[in-house]
């Protein structure tokens, strides 16, 4: 564009000079001036057109280069967005981050793949240095391995999962506490983005064996005896002969039970603690105070097709039993069906509540809480759907996981104690 501007300026200057010299030249001079000016104008027009074409071609080439660079990063992210670790995982994680760091800000916005997007590396989820991966050696003979699904949200990982781990460590002097995640996708994400390495279950069990651990206690932070718990038991079964003693403690909500109305002490305790936390954060004295002011709490779990999905119905039954008429249980997956977003919206609406507070019924406040529940820009988020229902005066969210609640941490401590005696 600067080249085009210079050509136009030269034409304007030539015209001014010719006009200044034409006073004594008569018609011939005027005609010559007009002819010269016309020629200069045609030349300038041609130059401008050429420059514009050149600039457009250059812009197109840069756009293609930008897209190519962004696609390379997207492909590298998709390559590590997998649930299986392999011999190249460490190398692939580093390559993805290195390639991302070389992109311009404009190129980063173009990153889009099957799973990849700009948020993979670009979203700020907190300070990873505040989290302890608990992957150290020198374990000793007695280990408590705390197994979680995991989260790539740094603040939640440190507060929710880290909170549980620290509570268990504080209650068990003489035992080494270590960590494992079951989601390799999350492990890879954290490693690639933050350089923090977290063991998966197989790595953690191998570390325990190499360190000479004899007595191994495994405390899952999972809510229930679902698919993740079953896979953990299967993995432990393969290596238990390498230890003198291996015991797996109960998940947070204890035994599943046979029917949707069957509850237990763990479910009662969790119900009380999560409602107390939600009420306090919202500024009410108790659940009845909130109800009297037209406010309902919607606790969103994950949901599952596993037969343990009855647990969510049991938690709703528990809320009812405790008199929490304004507390509703939902799930991202909508399984069981009564916990789908549509079903919960109808239930809250039919009950007459005009204010809704959404909060996760999950150990961590990670991807599901921040995106599936609370993202105002995602029309499929629960916040967006409740808002779009136009049945409520106010919809707000609380981004807090169960793991940061001290009384919930105590439940895990008690479950661990039951198998360390």
- The best one-word shape is globular
Q: What does the average pLDDT come to?
A: 89
For the biggest β-sheet, the strand order reads 2-1-3-4
| Order of helical and strand elements | HHHHHEHEHHEHEHHEHEHEHHEH
Strand content: 5-15%
What name is given to the CATH topology of the largest domain? Rossmann fold
Q: Give the termini separation.
A: 79 Å
Helicity range: 40-55%
CATH architecture of the largest domain, by name, is 3-Layer(aba) Sandwich
Structural class: alpha/beta
CATH class category name of the largest domain: Alpha Beta
Largest sheet: 4 strands, parallel
Low-confidence residue ranges: 1-45, 51-59
Cα gyration radius (Å):
32 Å
**Number of beta-strand segments:** 8
Q: Number of domains in the coordinates?
A: 3
What can you see in these coordinates?
The protein contains 16 helices and 8 strands. It is an alpha/beta fold. Helix 6 links the parallel strand 1 and strand 2. Helix 1 packs antiparallel against helix 2 and helix 3 crosses helix 7.
Name the features.
Rossmann fold, 4-stranded parallel sheet, disordered N terminus, 11% strand, 3 domains, alpha/beta, single chain, 421 residues, 53% helix
